[in-house]
Amino acid sequence: MNKTLLSLCLCLSTSLSSANDFYQNKVGAQFDVPEIGGGVGFIDQQKEKVIGEKVYRQVQQQMPVIQDPWLEDQFMQVFSRILSQTQLGQPVGLVVIKDPQINAFAVPGGLFALNTGMVTASGSMDEVASVMGHEIAHVTQRHYSRSQEAFKGQGLLALAGILVGAAIASQADGDIGGAVMMGTQAAIMDKQLSYSRDQEREADRIGMQFMYGAGFNPESMADFFETMNRATSRLSYLPDFWFTHPLTTERMSEARLRANQFPRIPYRNLQYDFDIIKWYTAVVSNQATERQLQAIARNKNIAGLIALSEFYLMQGDYENAQTQIDLAKKINTDHALITLIQTDIDLGKNKIDDAYQTIISKQRITPENRALSYKLAEVYIRQQKSKEAEQLVNRFVNKNSKDIMGWQLLQQAANLDKNNPMRTVNVLRNRAEVQYWSGDEENAIKSLLHAQRLAKENNAMSARIDVRLKVMQDERKLKI
Question: Does the keyword Protein biosynthesis apply (predicted)?
């Protein structure tokens, strides 16, 4: 079973290539977006959110999701800018999947996923933004949810089953996952084919408006379609999602004509930033060879130097990693990723004080930067400073309860707090959150039950555990 099956139903096979920007003023645009969500009941929205979170946990468990705060935040900045053009509430999340295939998908409730292959096939961030805009439009227009009546109320659960089946298939690479998925898919395929083309065109149109309003170049959506069409023409088969989301010549020409009707986006020389993201993504997803990276770095290209340093760092070759990052510093000493890699090199050499000096000055300048704060928290933990680490991480986890890396750091910090009578309870509570959002619901509940027994003499702590335990137990009952 091919991994591309992941994008069935609310998904769009994706590719990229366009130039990027993270801190731009929005360009004024006239929107013509149908008000679909206005008539949606609160219960329906809550149901979508719960199912979106369920699929989020399944994806974390079954798929090779990259846990890299710096990389996640680069895409989240773009994602948030596009979301600002919509009336969607807080999304379930954005995940980056370690998969070389050109793909992305969205789930009702606001779960969005990008494959690393989509990033590495791209030439700029504007094409990534075009894919995000398209997928966000699918969710804002409730394309899948609006079909629930036709599916006798099972639409969202069917989608969840398809995604989880695809996840299993991607791991097993056989027919087991395919059987899980295709059984569910067969029940909805005939219904969806009758309107999928119209919905894809609507997502194209509205997604382009969203990305333009966020300051991205609408031409990149047409560029993306052309890249995707070329990629597909090289295959000896059509991926299954092609039948529910056909890329026709009509869609391609419509996208180009529509993009030409927008006022021109001022030129932005942001290729520098995107190249760093692209090649770093290639390294952490094992899509780049040492020879490739050396060829790029040989021309004193900062993206190549940073990527090559990370490549050596992942191999434990700290000397070569240091050589490359030193060359990168001669070009740009202030880039956050250079600071993060240098800190990791220092930690790898067990030079804890050096690591602290490297990260603290940068983190103090931008305390809102999650990646820098988490790296500083990691240094604090190595220094046995649990309170400082907890204080740093809690600011981010309180805003996003699904932050797995944040919970992992809190678990480590709690374990260091040996004078706290609630030490074991806190370790168990934090471990439960790591397990739960990683998709291991059963063991998360077991961890909380253990914490509950240990905290029975502390009424305040017991009450907190009881509330969280009930939520986990109720949500676990949702079967997909």
Answer: no
Burial (Cβ within 10 Å: 0-12, 13-18, ≥19) of residue 267 = exposed
Strand order in the sheet with 104-107: 11-12, 104-107, 111-115, 93-97
- Measure the CA–CA gap between 97 and 218, rounded to whole angstroms: 25
Q: Partners of 230 in the beta sheet?
A: none
d(CA 315, CA 345): 11
Cα–Cα separations (whole angstroms), residue 91 to 76, 77, 109, 113: 11, 13, 7, 12
Query: How far apart are alpha carbons 217 and 143 in whole angstroms?
Result: 25
**Full-prediction pTM beyond 0.85?**
no
Q: Residue 27: which of 260, 205, 223, 266 has the closest Cα?
A: 266
299-351 pLDDT tens trace: 889 999 999 999 999 999 999 999 999 999 999 999 999 999 999 999 999 99
Angle at 35 between CA 29 and CA 40, to 5 degrees: 145
Q: Which helix (H) or strand (E) holds 176?
A: helix 175-193
Catalytic residue ranges: 135, 204
What's the rounded Cα separation, in Å, for the pair 451 and 422?
9
Which residues neighbour 41 within 8 Å (Cβ) at sequence distance 6 or greater?
none
Helix ranges (DSSP H) in 249-299: 249-260, 271-284, 290-297
The C-alpha atoms of residue 56 and residue 50 are separated, in whole angstroms, by 10
Query: What are the beta bridge partners of residue 113?
Result: 95, 105
Q: Distance between CA 193 and CA 196 in Å, rounded?
A: 5
Q: Which residues of the chain have pLDDT under 50?
A: 1-31, 33-43, 149-154, 156, 167-168, 170-195, 237-244
208 by Cβ neighbours in 10 Å (0-12 / 13-18 / 19+) ranks as buried
Q: C-alpha angle with apex 218: 13 to 270, nearest 5 degrees?
A: 95
Domains of the chain, residue spans: 3-260, 418-480
The amino acid at 268: R
Q: Is 335 annotated as a binding residue?
A: no
User: Residue 335 to residues 55, 307, 360: CA-CA distances in angstroms?
Assistant: 35, 13, 14
Distance CA 51, CA 287 (A): 32
Distance CA 297, CA 249 (A): 39
Say how far apart CA 61 and CA 65 lie, in whole Å: 8
Q: How many CB atoms lie within 10 A of CB 38?
A: 7
Q: Is 134 annotated as a binding residue?
A: yes
Distances, alpha carbon 39 to alpha carbons 42, 83, 140, 196, 206, in Å: 9, 20, 12, 22, 19
